[in-house]
Amino acid sequence: MSETVAKVKAPSEPLFSKKNRKLITDPLTDNNPVTVQVLGICSALAITVKIDTSLVMGLSVIFVTAIGNFVISALRNIMPPRIRIIVQLVVAAALVIIVNEILKAFLPDISEQLSVFVGLIITNCIIMGRFEAFAMANKPWPSLLDGIGNGMGYAGLLLIVGFFRELFGSGSLLGFKVFGSAIPGEEWGLYTMGYANNNLVILPPMALIIVGVIIWIQRSRNKNLQEEI
Amino acid sequence: MAINKESNAYTIVFATVMVVVVGGILAFLSLSLKPMQEANGKIKKKMEILKALLTTQEYQTISRTNAEAKYAEYIKAEVVLDESGKIIEEGKDAAFNVDIKTEFKDKTLPVSKRNYPMFIAEKEGKKLYIIPIIGKGLWGPIWGNICVSEDKRSISGASFGHQGETPGLGAEISQGFFIDRWTKGDEKISDENGDYLPFEVVKDGSGPNPTKIDGISGGTITSKGVEEMVNRCLVPYTVYFKTLK
User: How far is B187 from chain A (nearest CA, A)?
Assistant: First the structure.
């Protein structure tokens, strides 16, 4: 309902106006949910050991934030204010269950590796944060874009962390052996020269260190993000 | 027409409609995806059986795509025993279709009526017996497969799974290092006469003893669950093995 009203009222604003494009690009850089708002750190540590799990987790979060933002925004005018947090939770929970069921049916191995973390998407602060801060106050289309943007901001960071952790922790990228094989007796590549995978990179603290380094690089490039001491 | 969104009636009606709609969507999705999830579960079960049979290196070549074929290649016969160790059913998929998890959970089914499936495999010309087991961990069910070698006494391999044991503690039962403790071939399930030897999961490091396995630090209740599961499930099979001698 509100969507049609929006189209009639604002015919001058194209679907991908500058403002709307910013909704997608901002969370990728200067308003990244993980590095700037520091939300969703917990799952970023847990599931970034390999790129494929990072990718699936990122896509799942994009799905939940985008569709959830859209639904909440469409419901915002008819939602009883007293139970709005419950409504938001129900929408997020339903979407998370949908993702989980689909993963179990089509990607069982990855679903096993992600284990509880798919279910825990619901506790990811990015989702409730975007519902409450953006979708409750904006029209469905910008909300959808905002959801996609923030989901991509999260997914992008997971991929960067997953890239470094898989490369230096397992010596592979997406399962493809980049540095050669470390299987005893059949070594080839760098491993024949004494190279060894770094086990620390596999452990969660390293994810925190990588996220920290990304935040450091980002804030040294953009002085606006630095806090006054 | 202005609706008072603050009113109790509106709130209750909104909540009811929302719950019915969301519940309907989820129920539909769950029902339509169930066949695929069950198919995945079956393949996983075959992979776990193969995991008990194969060494770690051989198991690395097993994936969801070739599990069915490898299963058919290794598993030569399937039998189902009753509690006294008599064969009550045999044939293709006879053992595979027995759901010991449901039977274990079903409190109305007397223990004496439970089925005891067994998979008979052939590897490198040797006959191996794979026995599925089920029990209770700390938070939920734990299960596994024990592979008994040709002498019908020694354990030559194992695999374990769990539903929700604590990561890093009880959940370690499904890790390689715990499974390796079962694969040395010196663990015995019965004495020379074929009588069952009770198994023990220990804390004091006396694991190399033929009837003892080192447990997991911090996972005492899960370790005890493994002990109980092995002891309860293996007895009918030793009775059966004795009749073969």
Answer: 27
The helix, strand and coil proportions of chain A, stated in percent and rounded to the nearest 5, come to 70, 5, 25
Q: Provide CB contacts within 8 A for B196, sequence distance 6+.
A: B189, B190, B234, B235, B238, B239
- Could you say which residues from 62 to 101 on chain A have a Cβ atom under 8 Å away from some Cβ of chain B? 78-83, 86-87, 90-91, 94, 97-98, 101
**E strand or H helix at B75:** strand B75-81
Secondary structure of residue B160 in the 3-state scheme? strand
Cα–Cα distance between B78 and B100 in angstroms, integer?
A: 15
Q: Enter the DSSP assignment of B189.
A: S
Measured torsion, CA atoms of residues B176, B179, B180, B185, in degrees rounded to the nearest 10: -160
The answer to whether the CB of B177 falls within 8 A of the CB of B158 is: no
CA A157 to chain centre: 7
Residues in chain B: 245
Residue A2 confidence (pLDDT) = 46
Q: What value does the mean pLDDT take over residues A143-160?
A: 91
Would you call A87 and B18 a contact, using CB atoms and an 8 Å cutoff?
A: yes
DSSP 3-state assignment of B84?
A: coil
Q: What is the pLDDT of residues A163-221, one digit of tens each?
A: 999 888 888 888 778 777 766 666 777 777 777 788 888 888 888 899 889 888 888 88
Top-confidence residue, A121 or B27: B27
Best to test chain B binding among A72, A83, A107, A136 (most B CBs inside 10 Å): A83
Measured CA to CA in angstroms, residue A139 lies from A22, A134, A216 at distances of 15, 9, 35
> Which residues, listed in sequence order, are joined to residue B161 by a DSSP beta bridge?
B143
Q: What is the pLDDT of residues A46-76, one digit of tens each?
A: 888 888 888 988 999 999 999 999 999 999 8
Q: Select from B16, B20, B36, B174 the residue whose CB has the most chain A CBs within 10 Å, as the one to mutate to test that interface.
A: B36
With the CA atoms of A138, A141, A147 and A149 taken in that order, what torsion angle do they form, in degrees rounded to the nearest 10?
A: -110
- The token pair that represents A208 in the structure block: 């925190």
Are B98 and B90 a contacting pair, CB within 8 Å?
Answer: no
Name the residue with tokens 């909300």. A143
Q: What does chain A come to in residues? A: 229
Q: Would you call B55 an interface residue with chain A, using a CB distance cutoff of 8 Å?
A: no
Tokens representing B17? 């409609």
Bridge partners, B130 (sequence order): B119, B147
Helix (H, G, I), strand (E, B) or coil at B230: helix
A133 touches chain B (CB under 8 A): no
At residue A11, does pLDDT exceed 70? no
